[in-house]
Amino acid sequence: MSFEKAIALAIYFAAMLLIGLFAYRRSTSDLSEYMLGGRKVSPQVTALSAGASDMSGWMLMGLPGAMFVMGFETIWIALGLLFGAWANYQLVAPRLRVYTKAANDALTLPQFFGERFGKERSLLQITSAIVIILFFTLYTSAGLVAGGKLFQSTFGLDYSFGVILTAAVVVVYTLLGGFLAVSLTDFVQGCIMFAALIVVPLVAYQYFNSGEELLRQSATVIPTFSHMLSDMTTLGLISSLAWGLGYFGQPHIIVRFMAIRSVADIPMARNIGLGWMTVTVVGAVATGLVGVAYVSKYQLALNDPETIFILFSEILFNPYISGFLMAAILAAIMSTISSQLLVSSSSLTEDLFGALMHRALTQQQAVNLGRVCVAAVALVASMLALDSNNSVLGLVSNAWAGFGAAFGPLVLLALFWHRMTYAGAIAGIITGAVTVLVWSHLPLLADGQTLSSLIYEIIPGFVLATAAIFSVSLLTRSPESQVIHTFKLVQQTVAVSR
């Protein structure tokens, strides 16, 4: 490890820990502050926090690496994500902010699901929490895999040590400062990612005489854009665009909407968030495309395509700038891990232990229990991440589909359909989660492959979960009048606020 890189990373780590200490002094007096920052988060912090926790290490590693494997099909994933994020701000953000406050001030997504039907500490809440913990442990391990690869390829350190170091720093500031620490560090990390994804592809492009040369070099590795359009199947296009469906069910993203200062701040957050996301997604795809051409032109050996951003950082920049770019990757990784750890901790504390324990905890006891749960989830995720053969994009795609199918239809229908019943909600969660697990893990095809090789598992999961909610809801008794009254009141409040 060079001295300059070590200095840059040390400054970054110190800044994250100082933010954690600041948040510890400001927002951990009760569970609402620890889990949601007291619902006082500004639109600027909300936007960058949602974006940074969304994109994670897969934006700087998985998405550029996908260009080597999928070629220009990666663009359709990017477009699907942009549309999904916009729809999330439009459809989910304002209603969820109002509804969670009206639903007995619900602090977690599972708690909201239970309160939506007037059922406190319910089976629905427990089922939701189990799904969150299951998929977030997998999702968190994806981030730790990215951290391990970073330290291994950049500094020559042991992969396992990189996983443990990444987990340790994130756990400390998340454990100390809770939601405020996570949001503020996300804001800083989002700014770093924004700058890095502009600088790296632009500098790398300077090594080509023209865009024509770049495309000619890339064509020796991946099909041209025109060939991609002619060869791409309808199912392949749908699978790529369907990534956008996942946004409606991602707890670590939509929890930001629950914490924003007011509904009136959401349009500003949306504009900032989508602007940030457009630049960073384009930068990530451009990094992958330039990387394909650069590796071809200079005949470089790249064993892991997901490390192309790291390669550029090392060979194109001086050590101080390289250290900053390494910090950008860590920023992307840590921003998502911290969000996922906090949401998992919230589900364990409020939705599992809170529903199963027969005595109420004091606010301080609940906060302390939340901290223990942060460390516990991080430990399990670290153990899963110790296999260096894991793919960042592969792990993320499975977890993304799991949340999108299990929670996406439920969130949308909970906010827009008053006839949805408690039994329908449970049926939707279970159907979505089980469909994704079966589709992506069981070798059901004749050649031993999974059904995911035909179409991305989020599509059947989302469709079947929606069908389960509708059918079971229509076959069961309509919600109580008080539940419907609260639903209509929320719709009126959102309409007036706009």
UniProtKB/TrEMBL annotation:
> What Gene3D superfamilies does UniProt report for this protein, alphabetically?
Sodium/glucose cotransporter (1.20.1730.10)
Question: Its membrane topology, per UniProt?
Answer: Multi-pass membrane protein
Q: Which GO terms describe its molecular function?
A: L-proline transmembrane transporter activity; proline:sodium symporter activity; sodium ion binding
Q: Which domain of life is it from?
A: Bacteria
Q: Which GO terms describe its biological process?
A: proline transport
- The answer to whether UniProt assigns keyword Iron to this entry is no
Keywords of the record, alphabetical order, are:
Amino-acid transport, Cell inner membrane, Cell membrane, Ion transport, Membrane, Sodium, Sodium transport, Symport, Transmembrane, Transmembrane helix, Transport
Q: Sorted alphabetically, which InterPro entries does this protein's record hold?
A: Na/Glc_symporter_sf, Na/Pro_symporter, Na/solute_symporter, Na/solute_symporter_CS, Sodium:Solute_Symporter
Return the CDD domains for the record: SLC5sbd_PutP
UniProt-annotated location(s): Cell inner membrane; Cell membrane
The catalysed reaction is: L-proline(in) + Na(+)(in) = L-proline(out) + Na(+)(out)
Give the UniProt entry's GO cellular component terms.
Answer: plasma membrane
Transmembrane portions of the chain:
6-24, 75-92, 123-147, 159-180, 187-208, 228-248, 269-295, 315-337, 366-386, 392-415, 422-442, 454-475
Sequence similarity: Belongs to the sodium:solute symporter (SSF) (TC 2.A.21) family.
Its protein name is Sodium/proline symporter
Query: Which species?
Result: Neiella marina
